[in-house]
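Recall that a protein's primary structure is simply its ordered list of amino acids. Everything else, from secondary elements to tertiary packing, is in principle encoded there. The following example makes that idea concrete.
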Amino acid sequence: MRRRVLVAAVGLASTIAGSAVMAQESESLRLEEVRVTASKRVQTIEEIPMAVSILSADDIRNRGLERFEDYLVSIPGVQFIPAGTVYTSLISIRGVADPGAEFGLTQAPVAVYLDEAPLTVSQGSLNLDYSLFGVEQVSVVKGPHSTLYGASSLGGTLKVETRKPSVTDGMFEAQLGYNSISGGDSGYTAAFTASTPLIDGKLGAEVTAYQIDRGGYIDDPSRGLEDINGSETTGGRLAFSWLPTENLSVDAKVYYQDYESDGLSFFNFSSGGLDSRPLDGPQTDGDEVLLGSLVINWNLGFAELVSATNAFERDNFLYRTGPFFGSPGGFTIDSTAEAFTQELRLVSNSEGALDWLVGLYYAAEDYTEVGAFEVGGFPFFSQDLTNDITTVAAFGEASWHLNDRLSLTAGVRVSRYEMDSEIISGGLTEIDFNETDVSPRVALNYEIGDGSSVYIQAARGFRLGQPNTPIPVPAPEFVDAFDSDYLWNYEIGTKTEWWDGRARLNGAIYYIDWSDLQTSLVDPTGTFSFVGNAGSAEITGFELEGAALLATGLTLEAGLSYTDAEFATDVPSQGIVSGDPLLGVPEWQFSAGLQYDFNVAGRDTFLRADYLFYDEYLAFDPFSFDPTSRIANGDYERINARVGMQFGDVQVALFGTNLSDERPRLSVAATFGEDATTLQPRTFGLTLNYRPQ
């Protein structure tokens, strides 16, 4: 394994550097400039002193990306573990991973945004896997940035940005897709987006709709059923852009997405095939979200006043059954989150020595959760949970240009959280929980020239504490409410361009000091989970990310990351000693993509191949009552390929994913028997994209 990583690392450095020499054969070759909004103002990626990875609309289209598992693991320093349900799939960045985020026990360690709407308000472990059809850009900010993004930006921020309607030009795009899974079912995709100006130069509208049917690939021999884990995703957007004056813009969007599974994507790893444990009926989950957003941008001359108003309602459910200590058992979870957020910020327009941003933020969320656990037909445990959370914050950041090359950036966010919680579980428990947090950030950026820069920064991130759900058995470490945890990220990074912009290589080295770690704990029987602030952790690592034009039409992209995440203190009850690795964090990740665009008989054609290596990572052993026991998951390679040709306004593309048909174990649970997850098996498909040239 380490030999593969070494070869990958050497390959990344040599191909990016060597390709620039090859690129000199054509003076017209140049990588496109990347512009981002990670700092809440539009800048080039070289201008901002932070590590940011970008997926453009072309990247999404060329690679056929649809969901988290398609793209997150290919971004250096980003970890994603699909754990079988909407409640348990986890996103982490730079090793800031917390298995306690499963089932909403903690706030997610990564802030997730859909345009200007923060989706991780409190019960943020339910990461919204939003479809990428019609998405303009996906930005991943690595490292904590609570100054700009608030709580939950502990490890970083994931931002999905959709397209705005044009007020001058009409547009129509459509996509049809079909795929077949090796040993499984088939699936299809149907989507379209249409935009038109309603008042030329003043008002534009856009409508997007999609239906994604994913085939199943897991069988249940006990019931004689095949392909039980299919799913359907239906969604769409309605957007309006209004320009009443040249200095005022109003953007309104309504988003809807409904995901429902026919069965959970669990199989029995020990069976040697993709067979589930014996099931007495369908096990399902679902996720439905409705979001409205209104963004007003008023250019005042000296600054832009931005108002971002968002309101959403989200419903989730999960149903699982199986034998529990020899008796039939099962549990259900139904949850609803209703949230309203309002942010006002003033962003300077000056071209002088000082750029600044100040803002106010308000959020109100009502979260309810009803759960029940039955054994042998009798209620063993049930709860009704209601959390009312109010957040107010003030934040600001300023960049002082000391000279033409050197800039100093400093910022701070002050946040106040108030949570009222009611829990009914064999009785009524009421908990009032309040916290105030101060999260600063400071950075120094030096522009070397020719699109290159180097920076250093220190930034603090935090995550909100919450009440614990009472458990029916005694546990000495159980607390009614656990505190927030926080970390400091210290980082040195560089953004470089080579050979007249034909090659780009960005990198960062970081050290993270994580305190009062919110850790998933279990009672002495090993049956019930809760959260406590257990010790601290230290994380060191680096990331490299590059792209190069090898020749006319030939583009190479590659990324490499190393993460060493360890506990820095002992947690005796869980068998954790200082130096033990954090769970769910692979040491090495490597990805590479090669695309060749060329012409055949007057038709635009492309060939693309993508490779991913994902190292092993540890998890608690669910089959052992020994708290020190661990199992290894992950350790796999994935190869995808795609070929397409243009026929007028229609692009026809053939693709294959997981071509080597890897079957790694990605996660495992054992409440009702072995439930493991894996990659979707080898899949072949065809897509038709209509897009006027």
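DSSP finds four helices and 37 strands in the chain. The first helix runs from residue 2 to 23.
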